[in-house]
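Notes from the 1:1 (GR / supervisor)

We went over the backlog. Supervisor wanted to see one worked example end to end before approving the batch request, so GR pasted a single chain during the call. The sequence is below; no edits were made to it. Supervisor asked that the structure be written out right there so they could see what the output format looks like.
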Amino acid sequence: MNYSERLIREEIIKTASMLHHKNMLAACDGNISYRYDDNTILITPSGKPKFLLKEKDIAVIDINGKVIKEKPSSEMLMHLEVYKMRADAKAVIHAHPPTAVAYSIAHPDAEEIPGKSFSELILAVGKLPIVPFQMPGSPEMAAALHPYIRNSKVMVLARHGAISFGEDFIEAYNGMERLEHSCEILLKAKSFGAVTELDEKTIDALYAMRKKIGDKTL
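Structure output shown during the call:
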């Protein structure tokens, strides 16, 4: 194991710990990966609590899903789909943010998280689409991401979890944290009375600002 690979393994473990601390990973849930080079992916293993990971536990696969070392996550197909469709994707996180998942359960017909209520959501991510439910780990789950990957770096997986990706671990983590934080704000707003929206002029101005920022998750 060379120095750069060891650093990546350390970052995977650090990211897993952060997600667990934020209650977005429970027990053996979720998975994290990193594109080490054009053909090599490091990914968390199957069936191990993410807060107990060791460097030696991290699995290695190739871009086509061939296992090189250890037993990779059963949901690796989603990660590979992102890497194949987005050349700029270096890190992918799949977690189970409770409030975001709860919203998809309570609103089974919703196509996205309501995004016109406060500025930070629009400026930081633009939109937060909800991907229709498919069986976890299945080819259908990976295929269901197709309509969204090109335009969204953060997505809710209906009744399941969420996926976020970026040019590094920080951007991928920011996406997951931003999603859950936004849903928590919406839930609190509803508990106070109602989820209201900004006026259309302001919304248009915010989306124009987001367009200038680009698709980086903040």
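Supervisor's comment: The first strand starts at residue 31 and ends at 37.
Batch request approved.
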